[in-house]
Amino acid sequence: MQKHEFEKLAEVSVTDKTFEIVEFVYNFHPAIDEVKGKQQVADLFTLGGLRIFLDMTPTAQKAKALDEDIRKKTAELDALIESLSSLRNP
Question: Which of 47, 49, 73, 89 is the most buried (most CB within 10 A)?
Fold first, then answer.
């Protein structure tokens, strides 16, 4: 989401730093819907301002870390599968 999109949906003007926090939560928090997320984020900001996003940040950070771990493990698994396959079909 772009800053101007968020500001229009939430009917606010925010600093770049505030938007950085909002965007991080938007991108990584598991409670934010992939389809309706932009409106959800705007509604949350309207209801509770930056405080809600600061409270949601630790969960978003954890979700991001878990997603990164899953991507790494998936790449490792793919490499192992490929190695096994090359043993079977030299």
Answer: 49
